[in-house]
Specification:
3 domains; mainly alpha; three-stranded antiparallel beta sheet; single chain
């Protein structure tokens, strides 16, 4: 007998043959089907509107009945101790076991069937440290690492932006700030998220995450300033030691060593001044700022040496080529000012071109 699946099938017909159910239907128990895992004439395993695993079964054997009772117990246990992501995994595992129990009479013992599920729950049961807030449709909890996770059974369209703001801010804070500051960040973020979820509709111009955003950005800016300073200082020390080693090894080139060192120090001072303003972009890694600080130290070294080469070649600054103090000053300026050497290069190039 061939059944045609369409909207004209009544609930009674669908109850008699579970294959007639489709996504969006209401089951006999009043649950809306959001996804179908497995179905036959006598049963259907499906996901309800909240993403929970449900079933409707006729002609249940004793073995399958025992499996279902154990599945209900484990589902309840998982819902009380696991995060929503872990619960979804447990539901998938339970669906496999229930489907197998309904399709075959040759079953393992109940203990063996659920051994892997029990192990999974035991492994992750301590992941939730505390439930921060909960409501009829949502739950917000703190997990290991002082991170916040949340679950909402029916997220309204106006709540999508606050949810995205929360995810972006937590991701930014986690990737940049040290673990010691996560607890303070988590408190602010969870309070704003709870406030958002407790509202029915949020206006587009309302920013519920202004307070945690200001706090996170200020903490990141302060942290990056200190981190960039240490990275630049360490690079400067390494470069100066390398230059000093080269000078002592060859026992010559005092002017080159002095000019390169002056260029590095000029760059370091310039970086400290630039460090007062840091542009924070949630989608750009702070490693780019560290790389910029390191590259500027190398540029300062090259610019300092370039000053000596220009003076000794009589291309520029020729009157000062025997004055080590003047060249050191020019090298410092070259490292400090971004435009000094490029402008000097342009002037040299123009002078050479005019004599061709």
């Amino acid at each position: 007998m061939i059944f045609q699946e369409n909207e004209e099938n009544t609930l009674e017909e669908k109850t008699r043959d579970k294959r007639l159910y489709s996504i969006g239907d209401m089951t006999k128990a009043g649950s809306k089907i959001s996804g179908i895992y497995d179905s036959s004439i006598n049963y259907i395993l499906y996901w309800n509107a909240n993403g929970g695993l449900c079933w409707e079964i006729d002609k249940l054997s004793d073995n399958a009945n025992n499996v279902l009772l154990e599945a209900k117990r484990i589902r309840t246990l998982a819902g009380s101790v696991l995060t929503q992501n872990r619960i979804s995994v447990i539901n998938d595992m339970l669906a496999d076991i229930i489907s197998e129990s309904l399709r075959t009479n040759d079953l393992k013992s109940t203990e063996d069937l659920f051994k892997e599920v029990e192990s999974h729950i035991e492994k992750y049961k301590d992941e939730i440290l505390s439930v921060v807030s909960r409501g009829p449709r949502f739950k917000i909890y703190r997990v290991k690492g002082d991170l916040i996770q949340w679950h909402h059974s029916k997220l309204h369209e106006s709540l999508r932006k606050p949810a995205e703001d929360f995810n972006a801010l937590q991701s930014l804070a986690t990737s940049v700030l040290p673990k010691s500051q996560r607890k303070a960040v988590s408190r602010l973020l969870s309070a704003s998220l709870s406030n958002a979820f407790r509202q029915e509709i949020i206006q587009d111009n309302v920013d519920l995450f202004e307070k945690p955003r200001v706090f996170i950005y200020s903490q990141i800016e302060s942290y990056l300033k200190v981190k960039i300073f240490y990275v630049s200082l360490l690079t400067t020390i390494i470069m100066l030691i390398s230059l000093l080693g080269g000078y002592l090894y060859f026992d010559s080139g005092l002017m080159y060593f002095s000019a390169a060192s002056a260029g590095i120090l000029g760059t370091m001072i310039s970086s400290l001044q630039r460090n007062n303003e840091i542009s924070i972009d949630p989608y750009i890694s702070p490693r780019g700022l560290y790389s910029e600080g390191i590259s500027r130290i190398f540029i300062g070294t090259v610019f300092g040496l370039f000053i000596v080469f220009c003076a000794n070649s009589d291309l520029a600054l020729a009157p000062f080529k025997e004055n080590i103090y003047a060249l050191v000053c020019f090298a410092f300026i070259a490292g400090f000012s971004e435009r000094f050497v490029p402008d000097l290069m342009s002037a040299v190039a123009s002078n050479v071109k005019s004599h061709e």
